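Forum: Protein Structure Q&A
Topic: Joint prediction for protein chains with partners

I've read a bunch of threads here and the consensus seems to be that you should model interacting components together rather than docking separate models afterwards. I'd like to see that in practice. Below is the full input, 227 residues plus whatever partners are listed. Could one of the regulars post the assembled result?
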Amino acid sequence: DGGITQSPKYLFRKEGQNVTLSCEQNLNHDAMYWYRQDPGQGLRLIYYSQIVNDFQKGDIAEGYSVSREKKESFPLTVTSAQKNPTAFYLCASSEGSNEAFFGQGTRLTVV
Amino acid sequence: AQKVTQAQTEISVVEKEDVTLDCVYETRDTTYYLFWYKQPPSGELVFLIRRNSFDEQNEISGRYSWNFQKSTSSFNFTITASQVVDSAVYFCALSDLERTGNQFYFGTGTSLTVIP
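Posted by a regular:
Agreed with the consensus. Here's the joint model:
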């Protein structure tokens, strides 16, 4: 089946630790995105990539990093510089002007 | 700047009632796209509809209908004869290609609860 796979579904991070969220798509889409969702809030853009080896900061990029070495993969690293990382993270991909397809999300909790 | 406003934070209706979710957008582009997504408790966003700025025809899909009015910059979503399975958070979104590549701008969402 074509789609977007995010892993893990749940992730726990200790204070001061970096963690990486995985996002893989087999839709052959050029564009990929990372969003953060906090309770009662909308989706805020962290980073997006329109092509391999290129990405741009979104509205809340501080404390996060990404890479786009392959078309199908767009991992997000939550660094220790992100002071409030507990949230629901959604990865998406799209092609041209079409709709974005979303993964099932990763729920990150700081312990 | 692009912006999407969903003024209704939470709505509760009794099953079989009709309900309209409001969406107002801002953009300076002439070519843009509007979307609605449904987010059930599982968390994944489910695509419902895409509309381009040149097509103002209303659309109906089963119990769902959408009203796009450029004059008021609105793209409202109506659920007819609501069902418990419609309970979810609904997001309206805007995208454009002219200014920022294909970025999506989301509203803050409307949480719909359908009471049996």
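Chain B touches chain A through 25 residues (CB under 8 Å).
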